[in-house]
Amino acid sequence: MDIVVLAGGLSPERGVSLVSGQNICQALRTLGHRAVVVDMFLGLEGFSGRPEEIFDFPERFRGADAIAAEAPDLEAVRRSRADQSASLFGPGVLAACAGADAVFLGLHGECGEDGRVQAAFDLLGIPYTGSGHLGSGMAMNKAVTKQIMERAGIPTAPWRELAYGPEDIPRLTGELPLPCAVKTINGGSSLGVALPDTREELAAALEEMLRYGGHVVVERKIAGRDLTVGVLGDRYLPAVEMTAQPGAYFDYAAKYQAGQSQEICPAPITEEQWRTMGEAALKLHRALGLKAYSRTDFILDSEGRAWCLEINSLPGMTPGSLLPKEAAAVGISYPELCRQILELSLQ
Prior knowledge:
Elements: E1 2-7, H1 14-30, E2 34-39, H2 74-80, H3 93-98, E3 102-105, H4 110-113, H5 116-124, H6 133-140, H7 142-152, E4 159-163, H8 169-175, E5 180-184, E6 193-194, H9 199-209, E7 215-220, E8 225-232, E9 235-244, H10 252-256, E10 261-264, H11 271-287, E11 293-300, E12 306-312, H12 322-329, H13 334-346
Parallel strand pairs: 1-2, 1-3
Antiparallel strand pairs: 4-7, 5-6, 5-7, 8-9, 8-11, 9-10, 11-12
């Protein structure tokens, strides 16, 4: 098959996506496919051939081999595109995708997981991997996901949704309960997340979240162990426990920089705890109408209760990502994982 691996885009998780895309592309090639990484935002800039000819020049298009310690400067990326179009699809992207047998979505974050790309492909009749536009959009919105969790009977921390401006910060600082977690409504990779314990930290967190639009979910902060469980097809995979360096938060750098965190898979938890989280992950996956694969994050508190945090409809596929670790724990190699995602999606 001729497969476009769509990556990059204009999301704070752009760097993660480009590494996912490069690894997916290499895996698909080992499976015998003609695969090419295409940056959704920069597109085929500088390529003089026809879009369908990109498969004849696979080394002309690459993702990235490593993730930088800091999230990308998206304004610099935007300025770097020659055509300066308002479109999030770069030159030649839609034509290249339409000419492929399938598109493997290596996108992460708002630009790719919120359903807009999927909706465009649905309208154009372009087959792609992962979930459809509606399920993707609901899963990306933390407030909608929280409502689905509650309706499905999945335990999640008490929460509220806020849309605010600078003038609201003094009032909110005085009335929101502490300690809490403040999360931008559509963030990922621990970008746009703050965990304030004091009023001063809360005010700073609310000020920081204005950078992401001032639309947030505020939930009770639950102390405990960070775990995640992936879903592949109609089953859940072994849990992973993530631990950052002592005294540190499991943030963007801890997730993607070598030596900053430790992931244990299978997680050292009881069979009952794993099955409780696995069934919850599968239930949420189905309630949102997700397809092929996903990954759901949990906090396991000191009494052994699992609290659901959020779900990822396009989980990371970098060498250090969690879903590939879970798959490996049950004997599924990285190329085999890509093969199963592709086949489950095209079914």
